[in-house]
Amino acid sequence: MRVRFQPTSDPSPALGDHPNVGVTEVVFYQFPSDITNREGIMDSIDKMRPVLARSEALACFDGWATEHTANDAGEKSQVFINVLGWVDVDAHMRFRDSDDFKQNIHQMMDIREMRLLEMHHVKLHAV
Description:
alpha+beta, six-stranded antiparallel β-sheet
């Protein structure tokens, strides 16, 4: 998926500048193109922020895609993107295995309008 987005949160510290970020998790949340409940979606997302703050995540920022994106079925979607920096994949997996994550992930997964969640681990390179 190729999207442009405007972060709603400040990427502080910037992932590409953080010396300990070894892997970046990029999560795409797809919603119908005619969705009108962005505020409710953001409320659910905001409930996960304290959980992330207690994790080993080194940096985080997110935002909405600036244009509608076609999914694999050709349907137009609005996409919310979450970007998290971790020391390594194992740090992310420890978080996913934690009780804190397991007790709170429903905040995201229960967003009824969500069509698809897609997650990738990538390595950022300076260009």
